[in-house]
Amino acid sequence: MENNKLYLQQRVKTTPISDDYQITGQVLGLGINGKVVECYSLANREKFALKVLHDCVKARREVELHWKVSTCKHIVNIKDVYENEYAGHKCLLVVMECMEGGELFQRIQDRQDGAFTEREAAEIMRDIAYAVKFLHDHNIAHRDLKPENLLYSKPEPFGVLKLTDFGFAKESQSQELSLQTPCYTPYYVAPEVLGPDRYDKSCDIWSLGVIMYILLCGFPPFYSSHGLAISPGMKKRIRKGEYDFPEPEWHHVSNDAKTLIRGMLTIDPSGRLTIDQVISNRWIAQYTAVPKTPLYTNRMLKEMNNWPDVQEEMTRSLATMRVDYDQVQIKNLENSNNPLLNKRRKKIDTASGSASTTVRDPSETVI
Ligand code: I85
Hints:
By secondary structure, the chain is α+β, with helices and mostly antiparallel strands. It has helices spanning 2-11, 57-68, 104-110, 118-137, 173-180, 191-217, 232-240, 255-264, 275-280, 282-285, 297-303, 307-335, 339-350; strands spanning 12-13, 21-30, 34-41, 47-54, 78-86, 89-97, 102-103, 140-141, 150-152, 161-163, 170-171.
């Protein structure tokens, strides 16, 4: 943690951003945490996107985590970060590569020449899964994987698909635990102590499942037919994992694709696929062998004039999921009644600081 802070402080510029960039009034997007506007490098007139955040702990965390993973090909790259006073407020100004191709589903909807195919969907899923693997390998859960955070770097037919917005990203506890609590040997660690890490990451896998479902048919797996966003009935269906693959849209979609979706849309987070299992699934790993079955997706997206509702709904269910999973974690840690862990706790209480409760060789620690 200390190292990360140092890393961020070292690279945040405190000089005025106007020394290096010209900020135009053009708004590219509105996030919950800040506005994204267009700017140009004074050095070479190159266009960039600038995200303006209120300088606070949450904003620092967003920038820190985003910066850490911004070397990934499928994650929007951070170019510079400034800490400037702006309109009387301390702000963090994040200069990013400008994604000029717009949002993923807008691009699919705008498609003119022929139908979007299952193979194309598989390639897109592989790209998103790569970004998620990069994050999870760095012990970071994104927790806000949704269509509007998936952008193309250049307009059709070019561009690379990238993930953005780390406003809800969370570093897994596992690494910190190993640094801060060196008193657990692997034998005494209750599974739920290792649990939180998995729950945060499994939230991303659920989202991947929802995105894959929409890619293959153009509508989400859980949707209230009467058009009202998140009804009690829909919430119940999500909790029970009740969705299907309706005809005619799903008729020609491969069983491999449906099986993969089921693995990601599993209610029990501990039974859900991990990102490594997703990446090695043959529909993803061998996407070039996936049939070029034409899909209903672009037609459905065009006809459905309630895309904002779909987005809003996904935003809300992600919020619910983050809250639910956080509660599960707190509960698990406090209520943990594993006999071995209790014994260990007693031992720590009575002999705190003694050599027997300390892992001397850090390589022994698995968490
Ligand atoms: N470029 N969620 C929706 C945008 N380049 N956008 C959002 N959180 C972020 C906006 C609201 C994502 O962190 C967002 C964030 C960062 C970006 C971002 C980053 C880099 C862009 C909130 C564009 C763009 C640029 C030129 C043209 C076009 C889009 O958004 C378009 F094609 F749409 F015309």
